[in-house]
Amino acid sequence: MDFRRLLFLLLVISASTDSSAAASFPSAYEVLQQFEFPVGLLPEGITAYDLDTGTGSFSAQLNATCSFELENKYTIRYEPIIEGVIMTGRIEDLKGVSVRVLSMVWLSVVRVVRAGPKH
User: Fold this and answer.
1) Number of CB atoms found within 10 A of residue 76's CB
2) Which phi and psi (to 5°) does residue 11 adopt?
3) Distance between CA atoms of 23 and 114, rounded to whole angstroms?
4) In total, how many domains does the chain have?
5) pLDDT, mean of each 10-residue run, the chain (119 residues)
6) In angstroms, rounded to a whole number, what is the distance separating the alpha carbons of residues 63 and 67?
């Protein structure tokens, strides 16, 4: 086997290994669904995340701070790094998420509890 064929074969094997690993690694939004949360809980644009499956500790990264209005009453803000502990139907010790109430006061969101039926 000549060098070019061997190099091509190695590249094909490497590419197929990389794509199968990426396909088996769930997105941050898929992880939310595994813990019975809607994907809309996180804004679009998560660039990376880490999850310790033993403890539920996680961090998720955005390129920049992100905010949006909810029901024309509240503004939700996500910092570039969001951290917490996730378990089925609950997120505890949340950092990096805040909500503006009364047009001027920002409050940190430290806990999220899923209420209602799963859809």
Assistant:
1) 15
2) -65, -40
3) 28
4) 1
5) 39 42 76 91 91 94 90 88 95 95 87 78
6) 13
